[in-house]
Amino acid sequence: MSNKLRWGVVATGGIADVVTGDLRLLPDVEVLAVSSRAVPKAEAFAAKHGIPRAYGDYADLLADPDVDVVYVATPHVQHHAVTRAALEAGKHVLCEKPATLTLAELQDVVHLAHERGLFFMEAIWTRFNPLVVRMTELIAEGAIGEVRSVRADFGFTLEHDPEHRLWNKALGGGSLFDLGIYPVSFAHLVLGEPETVQAHGRLVGGVDAEIGMLLGYPDGVHALLGSSLVSPLKSGAVVYGTRGLVDVPEALYNPSRIVVNGVEHRHEQEGAGYVPQLREVVKRVRAGETESPSMRPAESLAILRTLTRAAERVGLTYDDVTVG
Predict the structure, then answer these.
(1) Is residue 318 part of a domain?
(2) Could you tell me which residue ranges the Gfo/Idh/MocA-like oxidoreductase N-terminal domain spans (predicted)?
(3) For residues 181 and 252, what is the distance between their CA atoms, to the nearest angstrom?
């Protein structure tokens, strides 16, 4: 490994563009390569971000011996295939959420990463947001007493277009796995994996346009969660305790402020907000570790179990669209 950790970016869409911008803010990182099925797109992306190597196929990027870590930013349905190939090529992996669409796929890549001794993490940046970290500390210290319930939502209106990735089942579309993963992950962070999962929603073209979830825990503790592509849900969260509450007023996925028992907490965001997550990957890979304690593969599996249970309640499945 060189003095700088060398990254390869697979795909050139909007999320890849923003995350790559944040990667370049880290002094001990070099974004060495990018791949896209369309070579001109890879070349344009490389020129924009000062990336020296552009490939037309992710297999070529994975064959580059100088790439240490791969960031997977393809459509959801391709995550498993690209992640598995990267691990087989001996690369550490940061994969956008959801890491895979099925439990079998996620179990496969988690096992492979463990077998190869490679770092693997699902990119749920919320877990590394300084205010979210502080929130968990305050809750653990008893600032709001015993947590009794969580409310969390994430939704917006998106005109129905069967070709758009969020409405296209063949691309892993729907609100639950793209947006609902944030409220579910938030509930898991505060309460852990639920005993029961209830859900009610509506399918359009085989994907969920909206879904509401009730997660049940012992002694009546619960979480009410929602995601939608047809309603502008308040994309925030509230954690209710026996002696107070934590309010995340907006941007549940990347809050810039939280209010704990009436006291506001703020932080200055680094870059577009992905820097803390990316710094964590660098730290763990440099240390020879294969996972982050803040977002372990076991946690990704637990979150996906909950998502899968909710999906089954509304008749949503991706088993028939998964690619190898």
Answers:
(1) no
(2) 5-121
(3) 11
Q: Which of 65, 99, 121 is the last residue of a domain?
A: 121
The CA angle 150-152-156, to the nearest 5 degrees, is 170
Residues 56 and 25 in one domain: yes
Q: CA–CA separation, 291 vs 280, rounded Å?
A: 10
Rounded to 10°, the helix 181-191/130-140 angle is 30
DSSP 92-154: EEEEESSS-SSHHHHHHHHHHHHHHT--EEEE-GGGG-HHHHHHHHHHHTTTT-SEEEEEEEE
Helix (H) or strand (E) holding 241: strand 237-241
Task: Based on the residue annotation, tell me whether 97 is a catalytic residue of this protein.
Answer: yes
292 domain-assigned: no
Residues 6+ apart with CB under 8 A from 57: 35, 37
**CB of 279 within 8 A of CB of 19?**
no
Chain segment 243-260, per-residue pLDDT in tens: 999 999 989 999 999 999
Report the number of distinct structural domains present in the chain.
2
Same domain? For 141 and 69 the reply is: no
State pLDDT tens for residues 124-168.
Answer: 999 999 999 999 999 999 999 999 999 999 999 999 999 999 999
pTM to 2 decimals?
Answer: 0.96
Given the residues 97, 169, 234, 283, the one annotated as active site: 97
Q: Is the dihedral of CA 284, 286, 287, 288 positive or negative?
A: positive
Residue 191: φ, ψ to 5°: -115, -15
Structural domain including 171 reads: 127-274+302-313
Q: Which pair of tokens denotes residue 287?
A: 């240390």
Whether residues 183 and 41 share a domain: the answer is no
| Amino acid of residue 271 | G
Do 239 and 166 share a domain, yes or no?
yes
* Residue at 291 is within a domain: no
- What distance in Å separates the CA atoms of residue 295 and residue 288, rounded to the nearest whole number? 16
